[in-house]
Design a protein that fits this description.
The longest helix has 25 residues, at about 80-105. The protein is an alpha/beta fold. Strands 1, 2, 3, 4, 5, 6 and 16 form a 7-stranded mixed sheet that branches. A 5-stranded antiparallel sheet has the order 17-18-21-20-19, sandwiched between helices. It has helices at about 15-25, 40-45, 50-70, 80-105, 160, 180-190, 210-220, 315-325, 355-365, 375-380, 410-425, 430, and strands spanning about 5-10, 30-35, 110, 115-120, 125, 130-140, 145, 170-175, 195-200, 225-230, 235-240, 245-250, 250-255, 260, 265, 300, 340-345, 350-355, 365-375, 390-395, 400-405. The chain has 3 domains: about 5-145 and about 265-325, FAD/NAD(P)-binding domain; about 155-265, FAD/NAD(P)-binding domain (3-Layer(bba) Sandwich); about 350-445, Enolase-like, domain 1 (2-Layer Sandwich).
Length: about 450
């Protein structure tokens, strides 16, 4: 390690990718510093998937308490207190922030609570004006919610602010059709809000298997969610009563108490000095990197959502690990992006890995599709008509499983194990040869016909 620099590695951003890269690099013997202008942990831990999953758990109790009566439980009058859940979630975020901070410090990583900008290929300047040099610089600044440029857009909130609301709004309008929109739609709906999803197209969750996403739409409608397709807000304004009046294309205006922008995320690379340092950016501000996460500048790297490869926390973590092993561990490594599983924590949740049926037909031509459309045992006894759908897509010539997609209770938990089989290239016959674990929902995967 060269001594002419202050550090061997300077990481900008202490999210999932930056923390993993910094910790492992330090374990390999590098002198490491991390600059984080907000809180250690990043989007996932502080204002994303972790606190959101806690809200999902809280929302599930709405139906669980109702179903409990069918299982013999006598319950008194139940009420929900948003502030209790909110404050408990935020307290756990504080705990995780501390845990991530301890992880870095215990590995000898210096944490600098300031914003950092690149001012040279080996140099960053902190907000305080201090200049720090490093042999290698890693950019791991993540992404931020996209807010459309329409009049009054500032009256809406993003997923960042959902965790800090003073109360559950009575009427919520969610703009977008992706996973963030559908997850918060389910959360607010279960907490008693009237929810409307506004989508510029006619498809929710584009990129997921058509049968599974259509099932979610059907169930969402039955749960009372409203959808306005081919609609885009054109103006927001505050009314005399304090509500938000939303004008949109193709539909009449509506008045709501809260509007949530869930229109995607953009790399958080603005005003970081990247272009001045010679780092090449894409049209959306994403940092262009090679398979080893190296940018157009030899000693500057980038991982995570700011590269706009696959915006998932586990992917950022793997990229951070691979970077550290490559640069400081003497083991050149890169991430394989094939068969990355993903989930939507909607109500009910859905999950998938590999190719959708449409993708498989376009790429392979000959495919075989196996499905199980069933009502989970718990729903039967609870007299809830909600049905699950499991779908397996196989190569038509050799029966290799190229995709698994499902919607239903615990679908993400079930898919995690099944994704190993898809990644390993197993066939339908391998699933058929596995004895079912009965009675479970997961056994449908080895009983598909």
């Amino acid at each position: 390690m060269a001594s002419e620099y202050d550090y061997d590695l300077f990481t900008i951003g202490a999210g999932s990718g930056g923390v993993r890269a910094s910790r492992v690099s330090a374990a390999h013997g590098a002198r490491v510093a991390v600059a984080e202008e907000y809180r250690v942990g990043g989007t996932c831990v502080i204002r994303g998937c972790v606190p959101k999953k806690m809200l999902v758990y809280g929302a599930h109790f709405a139906e669980d308490l109702e179903d409990a009566r069918k299982f013999g439980w006598t319950l008194g009058e139940c009420s929900f207190d948003w502030k209790t859940l909110r404050d408990n979630v935020l307290a756990d975020v504080d705990r995780l922030n501390g845990a991530y901070t301890d992880t870095l410090e215990n590995n000898g990583v210096d944490i600098i609570h300031e914003r950092a900008r690149l001012t040279g290929p080996h140099e960053v300047t902190l907000d305080s004006g201090k200049v720090v040099t490093a042999r290698h610089i890693l950019v791991a600044v993540g992404a931020r919610p996209r807010v459309p440029d329409v009049p009054g857009a500032e009256l809406g909130i993003t997923s960042n602010e959902c965790f800090h609301l003073d109360a559950v709004p009575e009427r919520v309008l969610i703009v977008g059709g992706g996973y963030i929109a559908n997850e918060f739609a389910g959360i607010f709906n279960q907490f008693g809000a009237t929810v409307t999803i506004v989508n510029r197209g006619d498809t929710i969750l584009r990129g997921y298997d058509e049968s599974v996403r259509d099932r979610l739409l059907q169930i969402s409608l039955l749960k009372g969610l409203n959808f306005r397709f081919h609609a885009s807000p054109t103006r927001l304004e505050r009314t005399d009563s304090g509500c938000i009046r939303v004008e949109m294309t193709g539909h009449d205006p509506v008045e709501v108490d809260c509007l949530l922008w869930a229109t995607g995320r953009v790399p958080n690379t603005h005003d970081l000095g990247l272009e001045d340092a010679g780092v090449e950016l894409g049209e959306q501000g994403e940092i262009k990197v090679d398979r080893f996460s190296r940018t157009s500048v030899e000693n500057i790297y980038a991982v995570g959502d700011c590269t706009d490869r696959i915006q998932l926390t586990p992917v950022a973590i793997r990229e951070g690990q691979a970077f550290a092993d490559t640069v400081f561990g003497g083991n050149p490594s890169c991430v394989n992006y094939d068969c990355v599983p993903s989930a939507v924590f909607s109500h009910p949740p859905m999950a998938g890995v590999g190719m959708t049926e449409g993708e498989a037909r376009n790429k392979l031509g000959s495919v075989k599709v196996y499905q199980s459309d069933f009502r989970p045992m718990k729903n039967v006894l609870a007299q809830r008509n909600e049905r699950s759908l499991y779908k397996m897509i196989c190569h038509g010539e050799n029966d290799q499983i190229v995709g698994l997609h499902m919607i239903g209770p615990d679908a993400p938990e079930i898919l995690q194990a099944a994704a190993v089989a898809v990644k390993a290239g197993l066939t339908k016959a391998d699933f058929d040869a596995t004895v079912a674990l009965h009675p479970t929902m997961a056994e449908e995967l080895v009983l598909l016909r």
